[in-house]
Amino acid sequence: MQPILEGRRLSLLNQAITILADTPAGSGAPARYSIRVALPPGASEGTLSVDLPFQRGPVGTDGSKINGISDEALLEILIHRLRAFQSGPGACSDNAEALTHLQGALDALEARNARRRAAGVEGTTGTVEGR
After folding, report:
1. Alpha carbon of residue 128 to chain centroid
2. CA-wise closest residue to 29 among 9, 52, 49
């Protein structure tokens, strides 16, 4: 696994996080990520680690080859979390802007899925013409 850095890591929390990505699979994208958080001295454990196994390959037209999570699922978690902040004392315009972008990303991926389903290629490696 190789470390990745897609953001600027400005906060102390994000500076303590290492994100590792597997070697890209046949789709060109890694299928597994690992997030490791270096906990401060005195914490019960030295490192918190979470693995995110993403779908590897097509899911099959009947869903029989599902083996990981989707990008959409991860976006839904982030949207839910930011909406919760927005309904409490952590509400701010930055969170609202992030929500707008995350919802736009989820909408785009769901539109892609709808086009693939309508074209009869959902669950396969087939493509939709014109996209």
Report:
1. 23
2. 52
Would the pLDDT of 131 be above 70? no
* 51 vs 33: CA distance, rounded Å: 6
Q: For residue range 84-122, what is the model confidence (pLDDT) as tens digits?
A: 999 999 899 999 999 999 999 999 999 999 999 999 888
Whole-number Cα distances in Å, 37 to 10, 50, 74, 77, 112 = 15, 9, 18, 19, 33
The b-or-e profile of 39-56 (16+ CB within 10 A means b, else e) is: eeeeeeeeeeeeebebbb
Strand partners, 51: 34
Torsion, CA 63, CA 64, CA 65, CA 70, rounded to 10: 30
Give, as one character, the DSSP assignment of residue 58. Answer: -
Element (H, E) at 4: strand 2-4
Any idea what DSSP says for residue 41? T
